[in-house]
Amino acid sequence: MSLDAILQVRGVSKSFGRVVANIDISFEVARGEILGLIGPNGAGKTTLFASIAGLETPDSGEILLEGRRISGLGPVACTLAGIGRTFQVVRSFDSMTVLENVMVGAFSRIARSRPAMARALEVIGFCGLGARADTPAHSLTPPEKRRLEVARALATEPRVLLLDEMLTGLTPTEAQAGMQLVRAVRDRGVTIIMVEHVMEILLPLIDRAVVLHLGGKLAEGSPAVVVRDPEVIRAYLGDRYVAA
Amino acid sequence: MTRMQEVTHSAKAEGTFPLMGRPSLSVNAITRRRKQELITGAVLLMVLALLPLPIENSYLRNLIVVTLLYAGLAQGWNILGGYCGQISLGHALYFGIGAYTSTILFTRLGIPPTLGLFAGAALAALAALLVGWPCFRLSGHYYAIATLVVGLMGLLLVTNWDFVNAAMGITIPFKRESWIDLEFRIPIQPFHYVMLAYVAVAWIVAYVVEGSRWGFIWRAVKDDVVAARSLGVRVFLSKMAAAAISGAIVGAGGALYAQFIGFIDPDSGLGLSVSVLIALPAVVGGVGTLWGPLLGAAVLIPMQQLSAAWLGGAGNGVDLMFYGALIVALALARPQGLVSLFGVHSQAGGEVVDEP
Known about the structure:
The complex is a heterodimer of chains A (about 240) and B (about 350).
Chain A: E1 5-16, E2 19-30, E3 34-38, H1 45-53, E4 60-65, E5 68-69, H2 75-81, E6 83-85, H3 98-106, H4 113-126, H5 142-155, E7 160-164, H6 172-187, E8 191-196, H7 199-202, E9 208-213, E10 216-221, H8 223-228, H9 230-237
Parallel strand pairs in A: 3-8, 3-9, 6-7, 7-8
Antiparallel strand pairs in A: 1-2, 1-4, 4-5, 9-10
Chain B: H1 2-14, H2 26-50, H3 58-83, H4 92-109, H5 113-135, H6 141-159, E1 170-171, H7 188-210, H8 213-223, H9 225-230, H10 235-261, E2 263-264, H11 266-270, H12 272-285, H13 292-311, H14 318-333
Helix pairs in contact in B: 2-7, 3-7, 3-10, 3-12, 3-13, 4-5, 4-10, 5-10, 7-10, 8-10, 12-13, 13-14
């Protein structure tokens, strides 16, 4: 499995006071795959996600991007190292237009305004917001705001993109379009980790899934295998359903 | 399914996402807007250069000079308080440092204020960095209160510091008519152009940084710090940069003010009212906009001076009540700042914007 790992999570544990959020979690993310990080509410997905994005420092264990340790470096260093992320609760810069929002991301790699603008426009077009470039971010529709989050993160030229519940709360049509965008991003050569607690949205999209439960890793593997795992079924649905 | 694959493949070939139009021509939209602003600025500069010619009344001309000064100061405040969203109520500190630095260099060492103002600006920038170092760890109201306290500490220090004549202040003696020393027998006319140059420089600095990487980063920091960090923005560093530029502009203004009046004392240099007068034009005019500080100063400073002249004589504070009421009325009528009259949206943040 460790043939071509771009991201390695090694024995990561994190607790807040007495609440244990992550217990000794280890897995690897292969270059160019779409990995689903799933689990019921309270499984520890958000904490692990925050650790990878640099917002939290694990109590023990480490996270490596292309062999370099990124855990504990903070969000800015993680972004510059090549980790991009979106937020579950959309955090657009509401006083700025779509283009200006994305340019902030582009400025992480490009110092001058004109090339940063060109880069931002390319990403905006790629994410399907081309016609909305000059629209103030606060007047976008919810699915457009999710796209803006993706565009902004892509403008930082990430090697790994973390998507936090990007498809949750969308209508089926919107979710379809969102999945199409995720695939297109992967085809650009960006490795993707998606956090989602509604499993059925993710299954057709992801190459592999890591299932968390009560802070620990419960299962890992292809979606088809993971959904048949009795432990996973128990975690999601309760003991009753295991036999079925 | 095959259809789907076809769509995705053609999309891949084009390198764009299928469901959408091409990127709009917003390169032109933003560039056009900025070009327009540059033209407006140039026209305004010419009008202001000709403004004193038909005006005979020296009170009125003096009023224009003071208004220009505050327009420049507010433009400087706007870099930190407007674009970067760090509301400072202690900018009199930088104003006073600039004023005292150039005055002391001139009166004690004979260094001309045209050089002294750069020393004042540099020291003010340094002071802004020193204030920012601890204070930028605070956010929102806490930051504003901290700057208020630091400003008042500066006032107390200078009031009790004998080296700078403490509460007595320093009078700048008139030696000879000179542009290098910025000394004139009748200062109003030449200082109109000195202050106009000051506003122009402050405006150009604001114009350049607004369109630069810093301008974008500051606005991002103001809107959402967490999101800004996730895009690789070094938040503390960006605030420090804004503080230094803002402090330098206000410091230079302080030096010019001292030279214009010919006298500086703790209250006129570092008083709380100076801090308020520096911040208010930008707030009333529209924070985080290029024209807000100018517009705000053009409305507020004459209002303040005229209400003091007409109503302040009795010393019962009626002028301040009148002035305060006017500000409240403006805030109620135009919460987005006076620039919104011209269809420009100030960048006070998303919450204030009326959502449909």
